[in-house]
Amino acid sequence: MFEYIKGSLEFIGKDYIVVDNQNIGYKIHTSNASIADFKTNSEKVTVYTQLIVREDDMSIFGFSTREELKMFQLLTTVTGIGSKVALAILSSIPIGRLTGIIVSEDVNSLTKAQGVGKKTAQRIILELKDKVDSKMAIIEPSLISTQLLDNDTEEAISALMALGYTKGEAKTTINKVKDSCNSIEEIIKKALVFLSK
User: Fold this and answer.
1) Which CATH architecture has domain 141-195?
2) Where is the Helix-hairpin-helix DNA-binding motif class domain (predicted)?
3) Among 6, 32, 42, 172, which residue is least crowded by beta carbons within 10 Å?
């Protein structure tokens, strides 16, 4: 119904703002990140909005960017995620980092958001990993390294076994060298150097 609302910022609550537009005050539920954005330009704000209608309630949710609104809309498509939980997630985790968490399937980081347990985090990742814009993802370097190594360890072991080493030799050696590596090729190369000593 409302694409956006423009007006002056009249009040900031814990998880909402009030925007005055032609002497009508709109109560708009929003995230911590958007509240911070609105504070920097309180005279005239543009809030990208979605009206949520239920049997006993009509609420406006809005954000300082279209990207955050889109993420909110995506989160509310996930089974069992309502508008309040979606807002709590966006208030706990900045959108770029949230996108990175979903893209990299980082369940543990997602469970740090209020109202999100392990099963809910897994469901969010499963349902949204192919829908989010990966270009917006901010992924922690340590997380990339850890996940890369976890995924590639078995492949590196198989490669060394194909070269005649036992599984035990391969696994022990890879565990010794993998922490200083950033790719499967580097793991195998360093493992071979170690084994040839």
Assistant:
1) Orthogonal Bundle (1.10)
2) 73-92, 108-127
3) 6
